[in-house]
Amino acid sequence: MSQAATEARFVLPPGSEAASPPEARGLARDGVRMAVVAPDRTHHRRARELPLWLAPGDVLVVNTSATLPSALEVRRHGCTWGLHVSTELDDGAWVVELRLPGGTGPGVPDPGEVLRLPGGVRLRIAEPHPAGQTRLWRATPLPAVDRVAYLPRHGTPIRYPYLDRAWPIDDLQNVYAAVPGSAEMASAGRPLSREVLVDLMSAGVVVAPLVLHTGVSSQESHEPPQPERVSVPESTARLVNLTRAAGGRVVAVGTTVARALESAASADGHVAAYDGWTSLVLSSARPARVVGGLLTGLHEPQASHLDLLESVAGRTLVDRAYADVTAAAAPHYLWHEFGDSMLLLP
Fold it and tell me: Number of C-alpha atoms within 13 angstroms, CB side, residue 115?
């Protein structure tokens, strides 16, 4: 178990959870705060200024996975329970998380039980997936159904208690989202407006895509990241390798991109096209070999994502970053998918 996942590394200031999209708070998508964490100091800026902090010849890698409305309601034991569909496996089975009535937390289904889903679909629960935990379960839909086709007709966006209401799926998409498959938004890219992307390209920064379909993010603090589906195209691998060879910087938009790129990298940092699953866990014990900068959201004090940030930027810089954004004299930063950003430039 990692140190970052077992002890609180900072204290989240009161009122720091973003309950609504920035647009509902009178801000543009790219108007959220961005803490630029450089080796010398932390600069408090706005996301629209991202092009000012990257250099011609850098490559910014984005995750073009689109968010599916992955929450369903099921009747169980005379009550309405929640069900979060995390991913779909290669054989058509789903990985799901049962949620207690009222959304108070994860529940534990019974192996072999059959849940009745909307639209006449039944779901037979099999066994925990991955093994060694009881939150995520492999399940077989009967009849076989593609979740990418099924969920937009019957699901709603996954919602956690810090949100003030259920926001529509369009608010949970990045502007470049193109490939449906994520249970929750790869939210580090949400502040990137079309205008910011154009400004980046005008400044000589290359924007390159890959896909990592995120699963549910509600795992307990002791749980490592779950296996996720990845596709790194040959064109992006080539751009990343050329950028590094020329002395440019590879900047990942989000922990999903960092995980995908590092999963496609060899021991010497050469990236190859890759299509498959990744179980890679990045940390100080397995530091990043390719990613040299990271645009990310703000993570909670005990989140395992802090290990990944440390793998890119080092423990000292990450600890200083969170000390700076939670300091009493700092601007008021907001957490979660509708919150503010951090640009780590070690």
Answer: 31
Q: Where are the beta strands (DSSP E) in 177-227?
A: 179-182, 206-213
pLDDT of residue 301: 78
Q: CATH for 3-67+167-344, among 3.40.1780.10, 2.60.120.10, 3.40.190.150, 3.40.50.620?
A: 3.40.1780.10
Q: Give the integer Cα–Cα distance in Å for 165 and 159.
A: 8
Is the whole-model pTM more than 0.85? yes
* Mean pLDDT across the chain: 93
At 63 the three-state DSSP class reads: strand
Please state whether 331 falls in left (phi above 0), alpha (psi between -120 and 50) or beta. Answer: beta
Chain segment 262-294, per-residue pLDDT in tens: 999 999 999 999 999 999 999 989 999 999 999
Q: Where are the domains of the chain?
A: 3-67+167-344, 71-154
pLDDT confidence of residue 3: 43
User: Angle at the Cα of 341 (from 224 to 238), degrees rounded to 5?
Assistant: 70
